[in-house]
Amino acid sequence: MTAGRSSEELKDITLLGNQGTKYLFDYTPGVLETFDNKHPNRAYFVKFNCPEFTTLCPMTGQPDFATLYISYIPNVKMVESKSLKLYLFSFRNHGDFHEDCVNIIMNDLIDLMDPWYIEVWGKFTPRGGISIDPYCNYGKPGTKYEAMAEHRLMSHDMYPEKVDNR
User: Among this protein's residues, is 64 annotated catalytic?
Assistant: First the structure.
């Protein structure tokens, strides 16, 4: 038994605690791992902040940097954090526009976990004097979370930020 979970529950987690971790430099969704939600009868948010997300501009090949915010309400499965870190790292040499990156990440996490609700927000540093901050979300169709997603999208970012709180 490890931290309240049986070895059977942890059998699919191979990266956490592995000292031989290999960092992949090309988009690799297959590195993502899950574990069972021990509280499936309770709605709660899990939030990840990734202040060192890096990808490449598909036109110039120049690096783009962002803080990514990923928030989700788990259903049955949850994403294991080290696998998420390695997955996000795999965008390092991936060339896609900012808007595509956040949607790809959200789609991969939906496919992986089938969450009740998820949102991904990328706050990219300015290049050429302009920043791009794409936001996407999803609520499981036919549930109250579908309406929640619509509401959060419609009221997203109602308070524009100042340069000093980027």
Answer: yes
